[in-house]
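Usage example:
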Amino acid sequence: MKKLINDPARYVDESLDGLTLAFPSLVRDGAAGRVVRRAEGMTEGKVGIASGGGFGHLPLFTGYVGRGLIDTCAIGNVFEGPNIDSCIDAIRLADGGRGVLRLYGNYGGDRMNFDMAGEVLEDEGIRCTTVLGTDDIASGGPGEIGRRRGVAGLIYAYKTAGAAAEAGADLEEVTRIAAKAVAATRTIGVGLAPCRLPSAAKPSFELAEDEIEMGIGIHGEPGIWRDRLRPADAIADEMVDRLLADLPAQSGGEASVLVNGLGATPLEELFILYRRIRSRFDQAGLTIAHPLVGNYVTSMEMQGASVSLFHLDEELKALLRAPAECAFWRVD
Amino acid sequence: MELTVFQIAVGVRRAADAMDRLEQELNAADAKLGDGDTGSMLARVIAAMAAAEPQAAASVSDAFGRLARAGMSATGSSLGTLFASALLSLSKQTKGREIQWSDLSDLIAVARDGMMARGGAKLGDKTVLDALDAVVVAIAGRTDAGSVGATACEALDRTLVEFRDRPCRMGRAKFFAGKSVGLDDPGMLACASLAKVLASEGAGAHYLTT
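Running the assembly step on the lines above writes:
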């Protein structure tokens, strides 16, 4: 597994340097430059949304800093949560005087550091709330949703909570929308080949040349089963079946679908998947609005894809369609 | 026997040197249960701790505090954050007093409880907490560095064997608990490997036993 890098120890910082040079709407800030924020700074009087997580998932998390999305992002090393200093800075930089929503995936390191950052900032009078992404249906049963990991579906919470904040909603309302979006989102992934961490000598997991893994996590966490590779339609069918078997209570027959590449799977293959998935959802009577196909949340060079369903009502649909702009996603 | 700043500093230096050897070994153990970076993360964290110059600390509390702050700045990973929070607990507990090796069991017990509250793991979940718990019990009543080191290493090896065939109930491995049976938890393994480094008779060992 070859990589275009200089030094594993400089992987994150050199990549962030390039990212912010390529997209001047993003600037590095905070402790050791491990916070990315909007170049124009925080809008006074707007509720802030701070996110964060390990590096290695671009466009997630950093790439969604932008208008109508998130305001700041604390960045850890590859697949490691951001440190407490970055979390503190991300929250401070997202404070426009009306409080800050901490919105990130349900992982131990991220939780501990954002929690500790909140404890440190209590004395500064910054009001904080927390919503965790928990959309991966392979990581816990329907009765234990709080245990589930946050994966690609987190971008729907960014989009809708970001739209609410941009429209002037208060902290309680932005938090309610984020929690509602998370509760309405379900994701399942499939892995075809692993990635390798820049500092590791071996890939993050082993998968035989002719094997796939259903339910894989975005750090290569083992999923539901491993078996021989099968045609794309058969894989799509199983992913659809699993998503339809795990409908949230508020499902109203309309959803956005995200067919997401994990890094090394070509767009062509994602469209082959989408073609089948769309037809299966049509057959199931699910109306698909605002489909997304592309690399939205990756695991470096991992091969594979995830499918997310974001169940919509009129409120969430309007927020999903509200204007937004970041380096990797634009809604006019 | 008193636990000194110098002993802490030597221990950190030796742990940092040993990570050259342990890094890929721990990465390999983690690749079976996580994403294969535990060794690299700990190598970076311990190097940052050594660079924080614990030898220049004014007290044992200050030394632990320097290590905690360096660890917290070097990583946001679950294991690294928990290690750093334990050191912060040791720093708070030792503020303004001299520390004896015989105090260590009680000090680690409080740190262990703080880690449980912060991370949400319980004893028996097959995590680094079970390793620390075994150390707390084993070193109770031990009064010098040599016997603390020896009994801690024995307890850690015993705990690794005892938990090997149990399922992981925390961290990424909890999602495939059945597959974790027969494998060592990387955090527990790191604890045992680093304890051996601290307690070994290699170069500098006399600093820990005098």
